[in-house]
């Protein structure tokens, strides 16, 4: 999340919350692709994490990026915490442990979002290399303990840090030691949203397996292929998970609003101040009876910000966010939107994908979600392996991208960006499997070589 919303217009009813979500519907010709990715900064000299302050810290990195790009700074308590491109809509932000995030602009093609990624990485290297900094593409920091990980100076993260240990055992690991890539996609109507939400929720564990890339913690194997995904299983189950209600009759914007209203709040922002209301009800704010802020009424910004504090495997805002993938190398960042665009932006594929998943029960979907972080492609559901389903859905995505027929300057369509996933299903192993093989082989049971081989 690059910056909190600032719309001060009051919201006085549940119906307005529903209308706000529904206003995200748009014509198919206006569908866009927004890709976000995080990466771990590290000091090249000793592979240590990068603090915020200091002549070669995160603040210096952001100030250098601002000078290079000319983007507007996002400032909190006098400190720069991000950058925003007022023209294109992209942004750079910080996650709690210093993970450096590009929130990409809404673009028409995967070629464009991949070009945006390559440009960003070239720009960030230009600033980072003189500072002695590099960036690591893994789903979890492989070496640093939680105590060694720096803390970024953002008010909302302080509130979350205090609250997380009350509602789960892994929330601080999630905040400070994980890294993800996600793609944000549009819907045309409530019915279209429901179809896409159901298919993407059911298939999200398949994507988790395809992109598994977090097998190390504290300098050694952690027993998982996607430890990032495993961490989410006990972070805060009131605001995470597979949303079984989304598959029930009557699912729509109203059902999601009711779910979101039941998720406890973290904060209310007024001016530059974050008021800690962790555990409070948005319903009370809506009615002007929040105990921590008596008489304060909900605004559009409060609702939008509250939705960013909900973390299911697929998140609904005014678009849908695919949240199941570990961060990884450049090609895999481009592959994630390729997979989901090929499946969800093609009506025939959306129907075909629904045929794959429609018979799965809530219990089966949850078991798959629980098994994939450990088993990856070897997990199964309804008598089929994840590898088999991955192979089928990657093929569907390829067909969908072919039908989109969006060519780059040399005539290649968007299928070229699926290459990393084709390798996964052909070789029958995830990137995490490959890294574990190197750890037990040429790396000599050290994770340090990852800082060279997995650096951007």
Automatic annotation (TrEMBL):
<comment type="pathway">
    <text>Sulfur metabolism; glutathione biosynthesis; glutathione from L-cysteine and L-glutamate: step 1/2.</text>
</comment>
<dbReference type="InterPro" id="IPR014746">
    <property type="entry name" value="Gln_synth/guanido_kin_cat_dom"/>
</dbReference>
<dbReference type="Pfam" id="PF04107">
    <property type="entry name" value="GCS2"/>
</dbReference>
<comment type="function">
    <text>Catalyzes the synthesis of gamma-glutamylcysteine (gamma-GC).</text>
</comment>
<keyword id="KW-1015">Disulfide bond</keyword>
<dbReference type="GO" id="GO:0004357">
    <property type="term" value="F:glutamate-cysteine ligase activity"/>
</dbReference>
<dbReference type="InterPro" id="IPR006336">
    <property type="entry name" value="GCS2"/>
</dbReference>
<keyword id="KW-0436">Ligase</keyword>
<protein>
    <recommendedName>
        <fullName>Glutamate--cysteine ligase</fullName>
        <ecNumber>6.3.2.2</ecNumber>
    </recommendedName>
</protein>
<keyword id="KW-0547">Nucleotide-binding</keyword>
<comment type="similarity">
    <text>Belongs to the carboxylate-amine ligase family. Glutamate--cysteine ligase type 2 subfamily.</text>
</comment>
<keyword id="KW-0809">Transit peptide</keyword>
<dbReference type="InterPro" id="IPR035434">
    <property type="entry name" value="GCL_bact_plant"/>
</dbReference>
<keyword id="KW-0067">ATP-binding</keyword>
<comment type="subunit">
    <text>Homodimer or monomer when oxidized or reduced, respectively.</text>
</comment>
<keyword id="KW-0317">Glutathione biosynthesis</keyword>
<dbReference type="InterPro" id="IPR011556">
    <property type="entry name" value="Glut_cys_lig_pln_type"/>
</dbReference>
<comment type="similarity">
    <text>Belongs to the glutamate--cysteine ligase type 2 family. EgtA subfamily.</text>
</comment>
């Amino acid at each position: 999340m690059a910056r909190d919303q600032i719309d001060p217009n009051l919201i006085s009813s549940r119906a307005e919350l529903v209308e706000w979500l529904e206003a995200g519907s748009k014509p198919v010709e206006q569908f866009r692709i927004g890709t976000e990715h995080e990466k771990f900064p590290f000091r090249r000299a000793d592979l240590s994490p990068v603090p915020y302050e200091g002549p070669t810290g995160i603040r210096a990195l952001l100030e250098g990026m601002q000078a290079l790009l000319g983007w507007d700074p996002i400032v909190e308590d006098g400190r720069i915490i991000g950058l925003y491109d007022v023209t294109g809509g992209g942004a750079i932000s910080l996650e709690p442990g210093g993970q450096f995030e590009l929130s990409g602009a809404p673009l028409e093609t995967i070629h464009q979002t991949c070009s945006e990624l390559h440009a960003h990485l070239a720009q960030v290297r230009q600033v980072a290399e003189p500072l002695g900094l590099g960036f690591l593409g893994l789903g979890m920091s492989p070496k640093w303990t939680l105590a060694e990980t720096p803390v970024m100076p953002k008010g909302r993260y302080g509130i979350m840090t205090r609250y997380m240990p009350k509602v789960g055992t892994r929330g601080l690991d999630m905040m400070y030691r994980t890294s993800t890539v996600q793609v944000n996609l549009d819907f045309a109507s409530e019915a279209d949203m429901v179809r896409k939400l159901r298919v993407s929720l059911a298939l999200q564990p398949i994507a988790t397996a395809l992109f598994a890339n977090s097998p190390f913690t504290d300098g050694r194997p952690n027993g998982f292929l996607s430890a990032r995904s495993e961490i989410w299983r006990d972070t805060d189950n009131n605001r995470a998970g597979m949303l079984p209600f989304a598959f029930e009759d009557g699912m729509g914007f109203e059902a999601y609003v009711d779910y979101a209203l039941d998720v406890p709040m973290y904060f209310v922002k007024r001016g530059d101040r974050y008021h800690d209301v962790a555990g409070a009800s948005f319903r009370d704010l809506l009615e002007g009876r929040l105990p921590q802020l008596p008489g304060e009424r909900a605004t559009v910004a409060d609702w939008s910000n509250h939705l960013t504090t909900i973390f299911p495997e697929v998140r609904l805002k005014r678009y849908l966010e695919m949240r199941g993938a570990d961060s990884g190398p450049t090609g895999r960042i481009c592959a994630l939107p390729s997979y989901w665009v090929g499946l969800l932006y093609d009506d025939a594929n959306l129907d075909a994908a629904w045929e794959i998943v429609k018979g799965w029960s809530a219990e089966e979907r949850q078991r798959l979600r629980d098994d994939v972080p450990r088993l990856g492609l070897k997990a199964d559901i309804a008598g089929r392996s994840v590898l088999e389903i991955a192979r089928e859905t990657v093929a569907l995505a390829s067909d969908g991208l072919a039908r989109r027929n969006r060519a780059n300057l040399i005539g290649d369509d968007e299928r070229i960006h699926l290459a990393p996933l084709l390798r996964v299903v052909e070789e029958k192993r995830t990137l995490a499997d490959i890294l574990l093989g190197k750890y037990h082989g040429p790396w000599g049971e050290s994770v340090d070589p990852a800082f060279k081989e997995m650096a951007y």
